[in-house]
Design brief:
4 copies of one chain form a homotetramer.
Chain A: E1 2-6, H1 10-21, E2 25-29, H2 37-42, E3 45-46, E4 58-61, H3 66-73, H4 79-82, E5 88-91, H5 97-109, E6 113-116, E7 119-120, H6 123-127, E8 131-135, H7 139-152, E9 153-158, H8 163-193, H9 198-207, H10 213-224, H11 234-251, H12 256-270, H13 284-288, H14 296-303
Parallel strand pairs in A: 1-2, 1-4, 2-3, 4-5, 5-6, 8-9
Antiparallel strand pairs in A: 7-8
Helix pairs in contact in A: 5-8, 8-10, 8-11, 9-10, 11-12
Chain lengths: ~300, ~300, ~300, ~300
């Protein structure tokens, strides 16, 4: 297929590379230029404006947040203005329910097709084409995008015809992961203060009842107290919990654990942890327990 | 080996059966009699008092809580009184740190050997000899018990020489599982109120990022709102969170998520959910959201 | 002074009446007409549009929320468009920090003067001219408004030159009051389930250590389980906690008790308590304790 | 009346002095000797053992916690052993519901009379005979003790015939006060980070809607960040919240705000704040907000 790709961060660059490798004709755009160099080496073409990637079957967007996605899609000269009728906007960013609904309406008015297709997986999974993709929208459009999904992910889950449903599933999934991080943080603080080896503890749990990447990856980071470099930075985790809570407010669903996570992220950032991996909230329980050497601030000082 | 086995509930009966099948010579005791009948059919012998199972290499205990374990071990005519010097008490129950320490001291004074070896796994895992066993105590004693561990579990993890460390790991593991239940409950309440199919949602998550039994089992129960019959009843979950919090108080580790779980279990029980599976705390978020048909009370009325 | 008054709800009508009684020349405006009738009887004049009350020394606004305040002030033909240069907008509504800042800038650009002056007190205190007024802005303007403050309140507290500071003090005060309601709700649930008389309990506490209106008023409502009619409805309480949390996010201040209150209000509204007094969150603890007859839903059914 | 007084801490010494001044014949006992010297100067007599103060109409106990109260009352040679039949034990300590029940039964078996009569008020209120006294037990016994209550307090509130009811009211009152401290802590962190003067803020609130000693005293301590010397130390506050939660568990009443307070106290103590006033939990919100100079640890270092 002939596709545009907008957003060449760590995730986007890896996904775009897999599209090129799968034989698609890919043109690239990134707001800060020069990010596409290695992809050009693989055969992609780099454009200097949004309109330059809008001439094909579909445009994939993989952007950091609502602001970035709005700026690409909704401003004059953006996606809505530039995409041909019938062409597809495949929005893979983690954005709010509200923005997903605005995009649904704007694309419909412009005679374009819109799918939400956020992903689960960290940059290494993106590089290995092992992402899990959750998608929602018009079934025929989903069908048309299957070659793209196959090139980027290991499995795709359709969740209905309302695109924002896919965004909500994604946000709820990040809430579940952040909950696991908080739980691991408290558990590690507990057994650590009892003198049990933290790393051995995580190995036991993740070799037995929690044998999945989220517990392995974040459990190990918490056990070691190493939150730099950040594969997914604290402000992004904070953003996703805020978006989940915003959706929960709209639907009137009290989520006390999400509120706890909100306060943890806000504290982490207020205390100077903006550059740390989001799993650094898992060190706050140890800090509360007076075990300061395990707290993110130690990591901060080490970095200073 | 020649062993005694005390405590023939759903877990204990399955574990004892696997010991018999592995060729060990097993004598049984249960406070309420008649529970060992099917095991006697397999070749076990049933005793009418604790002393009657204490003549061999080891006695395994698998009891419901601290009270039951104290009653078996510490009263006159109990384990401490009856076990020969050098014989092993293999305590596989989920008990408190404090009781595990008392047993450690009492057995030491009596010249007996004591291992804590609590397990992860529900009754079906016990029946399939697929338990994960966490053990702590004297390394030579652990070595001597390997044939028993192999008969009952799929893998055994030693965590040091202080038996109570194994109990703390077990309690912290149940805390992690209860945390996952709460998180699932909130997430399902959220996506359910948005009109997304609850069961499909759980299938997506557990086929992708949370592909482990805890999320599958409890996610499905929450999605269906079915909390009876209870494989692990709410009061047992409440007990374990209380024991984790008691350990956390002793070690001075604030655990806000554990406090939230404590309040959830207390509410479930206060509202009449004592007979439900502990995953019924995962229905409270939907109740808070005004989606009463998903709340445990509906299950209660249905049962009434 | 010659003043306009916009917003004739229960609070505003009582405040405007006190201005008239103090001898000020008052013209009135309310979006839904007919609210000013009794005030006209006292000597006030009623206008049919915002501009009609903007010809004097000052315009007082007492509106329900940010939306209402924005609609009055910022739309074409609103306050900013209609107020003469040098005239004062005395904004007494409980609005967000963000809106207060926007108004500060808009009035400054238009050469008008702006004071924030939110109040503490329920409608009975407004009627008795016993409000506590917190104000911030230009000191000379505060001085000019003293005759108005004296007519409406028992005491006025200046908190600096940035108007939004007064709004933050007001929001934080409502947070403190909501916190007292939650605490009273939990305490009453506890002693009530122990069989202690709830009303006698509140009388003891408010005759001794908590001898202030907030504890007396809300303690009595909780003890009696009577939350209708609402003097200050749940959605207004929810709004103020959300505004406090929005300010806290902006300033990066985690507030776990405010998060708990947020979830309590959201639950009360999700469960159908929109028409109840905000102190009905104080019945949720009893509901959690299984004492359903004390819960707001009983009041709901009684009302149905 | 002829009375014994046991427990000469800051509270007890002031209360005993008021009994002497009111003309009662007072004999004193304190476990660590020498505490009664100034009272002896007023005319009291000091005994060297519990039995030495048990010969009169009543014995007042004012002890730090359950352990101290048990040691005085329940051990051989203690109060139960020494008090004549018909004599009164007036227990004014803040103790658990469970211990109060044990004492009720033990005194009844011994033919003695028992009243619970815990107090509200800090040492300065005790010295000024301005305590509020909550009492429960046999009405005739309460009547007999009125001269003592009048000598020590400004007002006495009977709450029924079951002594433990008075203890529960006292514990719930301390929970309410700790809740106010937490709320003040979060509010002060919020307005402080916005640049509003903390002391002026507390003056505004306590001159208006929260014009009571608890808000004045603790608000001022939090605004100044001064938590030493402790008039009521953090471990005592922690103890009371734990006793309230223990009662709540027994009655099955989930109290999320009490759980939050529990975690705050545990954190304060874990981080080295054992010697600080209990209102130091009101500095944790500012610490979470990254405003470390306001945190108790700064006070700690200043003291170090």
């Amino acid at each position: 297929m002939k596709i545009g790709f907008i957003g060449l961060g760590r995730m986007g660059a890896a996904m775009a590379a897999n599209l090129v490798k799968a034989g698609h004709e890919v043109s690239l755009f990134n707001r800060s230029p020069g990010k596409g160099r290695s992809l050009v080496g693989l055969g992609a073409r780099e454009a200097t404006e949004v309109a330059g990637v809008c001439g094909g079957d579909a445009v994939v967007t993989m952007l950091a947040d609502d602001d970035a996605a709005s700026a690409i899609a909704l401003i004059p000269g953006g996606l809505i203005d530039s995409l041909p009728k019938g062409s597809i906007h495949l929005s893979m960013s983690t954005i709010s329910i509200a923005l997903s609904r605005r995009l649904t309406q704007a694309h419909a008015r412009a005679g374009q097709r819109y799918l939400a297709a956020p992903v689960f997986g960290r940059p290494d999974a993106a590089a290995a084409a092992k992402l899990f993709i959750v998608t929602a929208g018009d079934p025929a459009t989903i069908e048309d995008c299957q070659p793209l999904f196959r090139a980027m992910g290991q499995r795709t889950f359709p969740v209905g015809t309302d695109p924002s449903a896919a965004n909500l599933v994604k946000l709820s999934g990040n809430f579940l992961t952040a909950s696991a991080i908080e739980a691991l943080g408290e558990a590690v603080a507990l057994i650590g203060k009892a003198g049990i080896d933290r790393r051995a503890y995580i190995e036991i749990l993740t070799a037995s009842i929690f044998n999945v990447p989220a517990y392995k990856t974040y459990g190990a980071l918490i056990a070691r107290g190493e939150f730099e470099p950040a594969a997914f930075a604290a402000p992004l985790g904070y953003k996703d919990i805020r978006l989940a809570l915003a959706a929960a407010e709209g639907l009137r669903v009290p989520m006390p654990l999400a509120s706890l996570l909100h306060d943890r992220f806000l504290r982490l950032i207020a205390q100077g942890g903006e550059h740390l991996d989001w799993s650094a909230i898992g060190a706050l329980a140890a800090e509360d327990a007076g075990a300061r050497q395990q707290a993110p601030t130690s990591s901060l000082s080490a970095a200073g």
